[in-house]
Input
Amino acid sequence: MINTIQNALENSFSYANYRKHVAQLIAIGQSTGHTQSENLLHYSELNETRMNRLEKTIAIIDEVKLKLENLDRNYIWLVIAEGWCGDAAQILPIINKMSEVSEKIDLKIVLRDDNDALMQRFLTNGGKAIPKLIMLDAENLEIISDWGPRPKGAKQLISDYKLEHGVIDETAKIELQKWYLHDKGISTQNEIVQMHEQVLS
Output
């Protein structure tokens, strides 16, 4: 597993370089990932707008900020994502702002399709759901915990919708985006901080 982690880190982007990479692909009519389609390009373009907005509006709440400022050791937050993923677009700006609060957090982002060996270790119900945050000890690259692909409230919304309608369609995706808008990133912040507290208590 350590080799898989090391390989992923060697292929990783900083947040700024991830944004730049996705934008450069969009400029030539492509999305990230090994599959190309008009839909994926369209979602990538939507996500660029979302992320630009979130970077301006997301605020880290004081309670979370205090806990991040008091972390006891150095961590790598390794996130698996893709530019076309709506959940990643909602969550990455939050994770980035959280990482900026503490010098003890080094945020790295890798593309799912380019890092299949890593993705296979962090499947959700057998599927390659993203984003996935993997919390590593920066000293020895030990996996401490992982989180994702969505906060609990968003997971519940999708689960309930699928139960009622039997499918995740565009309406479900719109409802999910509304949930994120209303939540303002607070659930994601709290759940990630709680993950830290649980494994270190």
